[in-house]
Each structure stands twice: as C-alpha cells, then as structure tokens.
Amino acid sequence: MDQHAGMVADPRTRLTSGDGLKVSHLTGLYLIAAVSGLVDAACFLGLGHVFAEMMTGNILLFCIFLGTGDHIFWHGGYLLALGSFAVGAVLGGRIFRGARGRTRLGFLVEWVLLAVAVALSMTLPLKSDPLAAMYVLAPLAFAFGLQNALVRKHGVPDLATNVMTLTFAAYMSDTRLAGGHNENWPRRVGSIGLFMVGATLGALLTKSAGPWAALMMGLIVYSVALTGLTRQSTPA
User: Residue 36 and residue 30: Cα distance in Å, rounded?
Assistant: First the structure.
C-alpha cells in the first residue's frame, strides 16, 4: 500500500523450504498490485461500474449521488462493495492483532474468497441478472478489505499494492526535476507498472471473454503471490 503502519516486512527475504513454484515476499507484494488491477478492471467493466478494491471510487460515487440529489440506493453495487470491504478490513485488523502466524491464514482466506468469486462468475448469469453481479462483488470486496488490512503489517515502503495516487505523487516529487534523488524509484515504478499491466489485461479479458476470465487470471497470479506471503522466510 502507499502507507504502511506497524511492522514492515524486510524486502530482502527468500523462501527457505518447500517444493514447487515459490517467490519472495517482495515479489508477492508486486504481484498483488497486478491482481488489484485485474480484479478492479473486471468489476468496473463486468460487474456494474463499481470497484472491489479501490474504495476511493466507490466513496466518490456515494458523494456524487448525494450531491446531485440522486437516490444513494439507485446503484447498490458500490454500497455493497463498501460494506463488504469494511467487514473484511475489520477481520484483517483482528488477524493483524492476533497470534503469530494468523496473517498467513488470512492470506489463505483471501485466496478462498477469490476462488469463490471466480466460481460464481463462471456459473451465474451476470449479463441477464443484475443481482448476480452482487454475489460476485461481495466476496471480492471482502477479500480486498482483508488483504489491505494485512498488507499494513507485511507491506514494504514505496511499493503500492492498490491505489497508486500517493506512489505516483511520491515518484514525481522525488525526481531530479523536483530536486530529489528518487532512491526508491524501482519499487514505485514497478508497482505502478504492474497495476497498469494487470488493469489492461483485465480489461482485455473482460471484453473478449467476460469478467470470469479476468478474475481467473487474478486468482492464478494471486496463487503465485501466495507462496511468498504465507511461507516462512529468512533474510537473504
């Protein structure tokens, strides 16, 4: 995320055991940025022009409807996303303050929620039934609320996993043009770039095949990221 509270994970970590595909904790966070782009593109284009992860957009919709005098319940998707995200963040906060090792369980719970959303997106009539999109949106928003709370503890400074505004501003304000040195530019550019790649791919998949394709790709990428977010690691 753009700002992290509490303990910060050491980016110089490597996995020490286990077979099969595995990535570092740092790589796992980069991949989360790509997953965020994939999922939000699918939600915006295929689930009613709302967001499962970027709550700034949903809050803006609420304020626009309120300010223009439109009924705030006219489009219930953004409210469902806000509520589900909030519940997920509360659970993430409980895990954050719980016993050691629960955080890895939290990331696994997120994987299950993403898998449920993928299954629902493949079986429900999203095009013909507006309510069907809500069943997909709810577990997605819940999962990202949980994730954002957990990343507050396991994040890395200057590596954004979701909203890129502060990261982009930090990059520009620390350039030589602004009198800075931009020491952490690779992390900033990497996270923004992966978010953009994920969002672009998500849009292409949603347009060509449907939101299920983008969500499936997000689940695959998150499965790889999970190997770096849940396994024991030691300094490299």
Answer: 10
Residue 9 CA to residue 157 CA, distance in Å, equals 9
Question: Shortest CA distance to 30 belongs to which of 145, 160, 144, 220?
Answer: 160
Residue 131, CA distances (Å) to 22, 124, 125 in order:
38, 10, 9
Phi, psi of 53 (to 5 degrees): -120, -40
Which pTM was predicted? 0.81
Burial (0-12, 13-18, 19+ Cβ within 10 Å), 177? exposed
CA distances 141 to 7, 113, 172, 182, Å, are 24, 9, 30, 33
* Strand, coil or helix: 233: strand
Tens-digit pLDDT profile for residues 80-90:
999 999 999 99
**Cβ atoms < 10 Å from Cβ of 81:** 30
Place of tokens 């449907």: 210
Rg (CA), the chain: 18
Cβ–Cβ under 8 Å, residues 161 and 33: yes
User: How do residues 107-142 score in pLDDT, each as one tens digit?
Assistant: 999 999 999 999 999 999 998 888 899 999 999 999
